[in-house]
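User: Run a structure prediction on this.
Assistant: Running it now.
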Amino acid sequence: MPLQNDATSANEAPWDVVIAPARAWWRLDLGEIWRYRDLLKELVARDLTAVYKQTILGPIWVVVQPMITSIMFAVVFGLIAKMSIPGIPGLLFYMSAVVPWAFFSGVINKTAATLMANAPLMTKVYFPRLIPPLSSTCSTGFTFLVQLALFFVFALVYRFSGSYHWAPGIALLWLPLLLLLQMMLALGVGLVVAALTTRYKDLNFLISFAVQLLMYASPVIFPLSKVVPGSKAHAVISANPMTPIIEGFRGALLGTDVAWGSLWYSFAFGTVVLLFGLAMFQRAQRSFADVV
């Protein structure tokens, strides 16, 4: 029986990995991300366990952080500065904004540092570079859901104690859309900063400070109705794409008045930022190993 030529057998053998010329930087292969979904799950699990590892309270920090922040805001800005809406408990009023804002800022900060934080892994093993940003978004989203559940717990306590008649309505159906919009905004901004930090590493020090300042240009510590219409402050806060989203969360969770039509602005802004961020990230990751 004649022996088969080695070259022929190599050509006919099935290959698990095919190395091909790089695609254009603006093309996004979602199928490849799906094939690496197991890696995505592992990174999400890593993010959830590593943050609270070797801490005294452990995962309890997930619910302690928004609760302490909301109580502080309720005392300083609610009782003292009188910035909250009368008739709504300060804890619920501020938690309805603190929880979504924590998700927004968390996704930006984690995504912005994703390339530098995963540099040792990215320079040794191939996988879709969008996996780490997506894992940070998913893990932060899980934390958001836990904190949102805490809000419902406190709202039910107020309801059954008789101190506040919390009665959620059909506006709760807006919650998935609001979550999607803030995810688009946060992920898009985070990808832009992540792409820029490959060359300008000092942006990592500025992004958390900038996000913190942005909170004061958002209706987190006060409702938009407290700002004088037509003023410069009102124009600046209204130009913030997170303003309709924060107002929307308050409207969905507490039944406050909301201009739901303004969410189109957040959707348009978030779509542009996300597409721009994906393009910048895809382009930056092609030469990431050379500049890191």
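The longest helix spans residues 131-161.
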